[in-house]
Structures are given as structure tokens and as C-alpha cells.
């Protein structure tokens, strides 16, 4: 039977100067020291350095996933990506959300003088210098966002993510309260904290699932007997949950459960069929209109093109798109709205990317530019993302408004 000892809150020898909260769990011959850190704290970074330099540990696990680790070690990683592929793969929204969160993080750094995640950088550097294995145990941030999206009721999704982007983009000054929240969790957790406190459907994928996921990753990568003493660097908000999980018997094979926590529900068949149903209804409306009166048929077609085209073009104009992009969107949106395999945003972003290809300096200044609202329009990379998102929203609005207009003309008497 696995030997599980109660948490030991005493300080490790020779490290009395380490001030961060710790929990120690002994499982068989392996000891796990959970260090609760503040993501905006020079003291936490110093604690990490002191513990790793003590020589007590033979492995270090940190609250990072592969993508966040890559972003931390390659801050200009977006410049290495093909923007056209980002739009093709439907990742524009995720990239925009990541930039928004990064903007919040950058403002914290500039106003507090402390770079969020300094303790993770310290762990990376010190473990490399000491030649210790580094274990990335957190779940991918994209999967967490998707599970949040699928876990909350559909009527809360728009307000949740519009609130996320709106609050991050509009606040030029980071308040003392926001910095305090960052001392308990990372940027993602602090951004959603006001929602998570009152929403179990949000708390589960954001906090409790990640507690369990990180414990499962420890069981896979640093299971009992593999290492003698593992330092686990996590946000203070995860320490209690992870300690409680570690005190319970670990599964013999943690991989199946870990994979279940990585799964995202497939899109609903209803939502997948909806665009095709709208297309069929609109085309049917055209056919009914022409069958009644040729003039009525052409009127419906004209209204569809004008409403969809004008709203989509106006949306891209608000994003300060190139005039040719605005014109292209005006003509493309009514057609793409009848073809669910391609969106108006994809066409608009493609034209904008062709006309205003980002330069090297746009990628190098991106993280700083998006800390200001006007910077999203000034930087060519972020502006292309805005063009994609605004054209998509404009076309969606145009589709519904024009669709109701057609229905009213045919059946409204």
C-alpha cells in the first residue's frame, strides 16, 4: 500500500529565510514540497531560487503548460507563426484573447515594476543551472478556456468573454485590488475571479480541474519512487487543493483520467447544422419571393446583399481596415454568409494581410502596443486580428437582421 503521510508544514532544513507558504507530502520514498507562490512578487522568485540552490531537490515541477512555457521562453513567438494559418485554423479568437491577457500582464509589469511569472522564470533558470529535470504540469491554457466555454451555460458565454476582453482592453490602470488577486493566481485566474467566486461551472474547469490535472501529471512524470524530493512551484491558490489531492491514493495509471481532463466536448450537432439551415432558409426565401413576384425576389436579394455587406464593411471600417479591404468585405460578406465553409472574417483578414503585411517591428512591439487600446489599431498584427473579428461579427449580425427582414417581407403580411 502507498505510504501517504500527512502534510508537513515545517520548513526544510537550512531554508528558514524562505517566506512563501509550503506544504510537504510524503508518498513512499518521494517527498513533494509544494511552494505556494505569488505571481507578482519578487519575494516568491527569491524563494524559488533559494530552495533550488539548497541542493535538496532532484526535480522541479512548475505550473506551466507547453504553450505558456514557449511563450515565456520565446516572447516573440507570434512572429514565428503564419497569420494566414491562424485564420484558416480558426484560432484568431484564441490569439486575440491571449494578447489581451498578455496586455494585462504587461501593464502589471510596467506599473508594479515586477514581471508576472518571475518565479517561473527563476525556476526555469535555476533548474537549468543545477541540471535538474524540469516538469511542466499545468493543463494547456487553450484547453482550459475551451472547457470553461463548454462548461458554462450558453447564455452566459457571451457576457463572460466579452467581459474578459472588455475589462482587459479598457482598463489603462491596473488597480491595487487586481494586483492583489494576481498574488493568489495567474493572469487567467485573476481575470475570471469575480465570475468564478459565484459560478461553480466556472470554478471547476478553472481551479479544481487544474488542481487534479497537475497532481495527475506529477503522478505520471514524478510518481513515487522516481525522484527523492520534488519541488512543486505553483500559485498559492492551488496549494490547498493539490495537497488534498496528493494526500489521497494516486491512481495506478493516471493517464486515462488526465486525458479525460484534456478532452473538449465536440460541437453540438445543432450548432454545426445551424449555418447550413440558415443558408437553406435564406435560399428558400429567395425562391418563394421570385415565385410570387420577380420584383419581390430581387428586392429580397438586394436587401440581403446591402444589409450583410454594409454591416460587415462598416465593422471592418471600425477596425481601420484598408479601404480595399472594406470594399472586398462588402462584396464578400453576403456570399460567404451563404457558404458556411468560409467566413467573411477570413476573406477580410486575408485581403488586409495582403495589403498591409506586418513588418518585423510590428511583431517586436506587439506585446507593448496592445497594452493600450489605440495600440490594437496601430500595430498591423493586432489590427488584422481586429479586422477578422469585426468582419465576422458584422457578417453574423447582417445574416440575422437580413434573415428576419426576408421572413417579414414574405410572411409578415
UniProtKB/TrEMBL annotation:
Segments crossing the lipid bilayer: 273-292, 304-331, 337-355, 384-407
Pfam family for this entry, one: TraB_PrgY_gumN
Source domain of life: Bacteria
Organism: Halomonas ventosae
InterPro entries on file: TraB/PrgY/GumN_fam (IPR002816), TraB_bac (IPR005230), TraB_PrgY-like (IPR046345)
Region ranges (Disordered): 1-21
Keyword Ribosomal protein part of the UniProt annotation: no
Protein name per Swiss-Prot or TrEMBL: Pheromone shutdown-related protein TraB
Keywords: Membrane, Transmembrane, Transmembrane helix
Amino acid at each position: 500500500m502507498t505510504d501517504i503521510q500527512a502534510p508537513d508544514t515545517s520548513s526544510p532544513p537550512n531554508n528558514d529565510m524562505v517566506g512563501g507558504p509550503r506544504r510537504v507530502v510524503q508518498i513512499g520514498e518521494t517527498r513533494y514540497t509544494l511552494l505556494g507562490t505569488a505571481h507578482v512578487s519578487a519575494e516568491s522568485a527569491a524563494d524559488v531560487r533559494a530552495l533550488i540552490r539548497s541542493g535538496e531537490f532532484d526535480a522541479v515541477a512548475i505550473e506551466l503548460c507547453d504553450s505558456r512555457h514557449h511563450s515565456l521562453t520565446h516572447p516573440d513567438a507570434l512572429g514565428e507563426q503564419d497569420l494566414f494559418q491562424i485564420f484558416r485554423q480558426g484560432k484568431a479568437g484564441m490569439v486575440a484573447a491571449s494578447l489581451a491577457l498578455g496586455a494585462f500582464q504587461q501593464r502589471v509589469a510596467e506599473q508594479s515594476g515586477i514581471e508576472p511569472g518571475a518565479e517561473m522564470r527563476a525556476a526555469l533558470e535555476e533548474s537549468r543551472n543545477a541540471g535538474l529535470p524540469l516538469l511542466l504540469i499545468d493543463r494547456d491554457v487553450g484547453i482550459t478556456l475551451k472547457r470553461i466555454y463548454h462548461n458554462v451555460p450558453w447564455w452566459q458565454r457571451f457576457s463572460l468573454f466579452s467581459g474578459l476582453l472588455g475589462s482587459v482592453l479598457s482598463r489603462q490602470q491596473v488597480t491595487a485590488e487586481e494586483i492583489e488577486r494576481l498574488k493568489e493566481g495567474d493572469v487567467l485566474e485573476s481575470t475570471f475571479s469575480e465570475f468564478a467566486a459565484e459560478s461553480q461551472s466556472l470554478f471547476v474547469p478553472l481551479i479544481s480541474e487544474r488542481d487534479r490535472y497537475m497532481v495527475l501529471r506529477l503522478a505520471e512524470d514524478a510518481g513515487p519512487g522516481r525522484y527523492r524530493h520534488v519541488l512543486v512551484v505553483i500559485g498559492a491558490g492551488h496549494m490547498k487543493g493539490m495537497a488534498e489531492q496528493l494526500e489521497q491514493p494516486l491512481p495506478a495509471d493516471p493517464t486515462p483520467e488526465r486525458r479525460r481532463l484534456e478532452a473538449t466536448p465536440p460541437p453540438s450537432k445543432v450548432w454545426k447544422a445551424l449555418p447550413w439551415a440558415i443558408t437553406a432558409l435564406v435560399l428558400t426565401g429567395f425562391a418563394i419571393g421570385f415565385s410570387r413576384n420577380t420584383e419581390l425576389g430581387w428586392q429580397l436579394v438586394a436587401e440581403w446583399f446591402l444589409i450583410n455587406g454594409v454591416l460587415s464593411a462598416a465593422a471592418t471600417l471600425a477596425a481601420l481596415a484598408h479601404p480595399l479591404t472594406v470594399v472586398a468585405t462588402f462584396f464578400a460578406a453576403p456570399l460567404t454568409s451563404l457558404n458556411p465553409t468560409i467566413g467573411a472574417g477570413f476573406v477580410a483578414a486575408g485581403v488586409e494581410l495582403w495589403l498591409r503585411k506586418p513588418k518585423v517591428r510590428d511583431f517586436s512591439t506587439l506585446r507593448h502596443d496592445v497594452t493600450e487600446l489605440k495600440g490594437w489599431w496601430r500595430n498591423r498584427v493586432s489590427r488584422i486580428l481586429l479586422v477578422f473579428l469585426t468582419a465576422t461579427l458584422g457578417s453574423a449580425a447582417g445574416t440575422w437582421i437580413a434573415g428576419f427582414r426576408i421572413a417579414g417581407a414574405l410572411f409578415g403580411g
